[in-house]
# Entry
Amino acid sequence: MRSSTRVPLAVAAIAAASMVVACSAASPDTSTSQADDVALRMTIWSANPDHVAVFEKLGATFAEQNPRVKSVKIESFNLAELDTLVTTQISAGDAPDVSWLPVESSAEYIKAGALMDLHDTIEATDGFDMDDFIPSLLERWEVDDAVYGIPFSTGPLIMYYNKDLYKQAGVKDPGQLIAEGNWNWDAFRQTSKELKDSLSIPGYALNDFDFKNWTRLLPYLNAYGASPWSDDATKCTIDSSDAVDALSVLHGMTFDDGSMPVPGQQVDFWGGGVAATSAFLGSAANLGDVSFDWGIAPTPAGPAGNVVATGQASIVAFAAGNHTKEATEFVTFLGSKDAMAEYSGFFPPIRESVLTPEVLTQNSDVLTPEAVIPIIEGVKDNGKVFPVTESNAAVADALNSSLDEFFYQPGVDIEQALASVCKNVGPLLP
Amino acid sequence: MMTTQQRAAATSAPGILRAPKRGSSRRTPRSGRSPLHSGRNLFGFALLAPQTLGMLVVGIVAIGGVVQLSLTRVNVLAGTREFVGVDNYTRIFGDPNMAVVLSNTFFFVVVLSIGGTVLSLALALLLNQKLVGINIFRAAIFIPALVTTVAWTLVWGFILQPGGLLDGIVGLVGAGPVPWLRGEWLTLAVFAFIQLTKNVGINMMIFLAALQAVPQELLDAAHVDGAGRWTRFRHVVLPQISSSIIMVFMLMVSGSFKVFELVLLLTNGGPGVQTSVLAFEIYRQAFRLNDIGYASALSVFLFVLVIALIGLIWQFRKRMVFHESE
# Structure
């Protein structure tokens, strides 16, 4: 046989063999175990030893109370890897039984049937006290009577500021603006520019943003009554006049005033490189290491009032897990009042009974009950959980990518830029 | 009188003697195969078999799995798959982003393979000298190859950031700030530079070894014939190192299709998809958009592209590599 015909034949043979072998590979076994020695796996995105320890302790308690459950293993990973980890493990037939899940992913996971309904288990649990949950903060996880997750952490985006830098620049800090009753985006933009002109460092930066995370724009959008999409998540609204007004402030601060870092510029609030930042309440742990006098405040208000952009994460049971019954019971156990009291010192809860300044600051070396009272009031009265869509992965990718392409550029027509963003995002909304 | 090239070929007689004329090469082993010879072959195959089998099995399952996935629409969250035939492949040609992604990918293939080969050969020629302390220069160029790509990229991220070191340097002459990571072709050129400087050391070392293996007597003979420096390089050195050139070129071609970390860490493919490449697009579709079927089709497409290009170069080697056509 000539070598020129041997090679294609060999390639064809390998391809055919590949298909046969791959097609004959065992399909994932998703059957539910009936054994009495169930080992549950729970994934969380914190490697903080205290966080891991509290869930390990609760897992051990649950295993003691349930003869069918032998153990609960807590596995830590990075939030950015959540989708990769979960989808890979589901495909491999080895999904975690229980996991934390950010609210942005809730609608997409619920629509795909990836989450277990907890309603019946909750109903059957004595003393669960569902009425103790603040209803507006639970709604992202409810569809009719079904409950797909127990929010364990509902953290507002708040403002952290460096009092020393404001003092050095001779500019009013957010605390002083609040005392004057002048705490809004226009006033904050003005003081940020004055600080930048005086000290040549940015007055404000969005934490964990890097021009790739649209959720960090929500303090602006919420204050102006805007949202990236409509309430029913069917129409892109980031090109609305309210959104244009809101994002004009951010654009102006970035490209006109120079009081916010431009794309690619690295700044660090915790190292003293910027005067203020907005970050989750949980970031207060970083304040223990800073060397400056600091303060915290709600994010500035706007024409729509003082709306608090609130992130949320729930504990969910995966339908693709191998022990769905036990997983559902474990999630319900973790949502009970006693269990929630164990970890509420680390994660702001949505149970009225434990959402108190004392509980929230019990594990903090830096926060005081007095300091967090306005934050808690803000969440209770004006907390607005991040908007969600059933196409979260695609929409978030298109939104981040389009904002980067059309909006995070100097000298653009903001109305046109946001209209271009909607042109890309709109078709992805169901 | 013999030309320089003929003399070079004649002087490297051992190589020619080991390459008998066509026909004789097949007869000799068959007619003269001894039990000792067969036993030695068997022993060789036995040594190779476990590794080859392992690689074949892993490779076959992986390739087959990707091909199979590429023919399906996968809902990873629901754990379901639906057979869609070649839909994912036809989608590739209708994808509006693909024109940019493919042109960026081929930009890297051309620049990194041709530029990388020429640059590393030039550096090897420059450093193939017996000077005091020459090893310091060789090490300086080779060291980046020892650093992980992620660390290398992060350092460049700091250098290129607005107000960073590079902006400071161009600012000295009153220019800038330059949007190094925001401007389409400029950013691609920056990426190509970072990737080139990262890997040029290894290729340079391969060329250096090849250059030092060029027999001195060939160069002396050419010199005696009156060949100048360029003629010696063109007609003696280049043919002698041609197999190394083709090997480096092929490695650069296949490697340049896999530019990924730079894109992920420095621009995330943006703004929009202006700096995205095929390898990054596969990652984005699979792990950000959960579209495993389409990502698999893109993977198969990339696989075929690489194989086709390498196959083409392999065919061309007969003309380009000295002795290869004999």
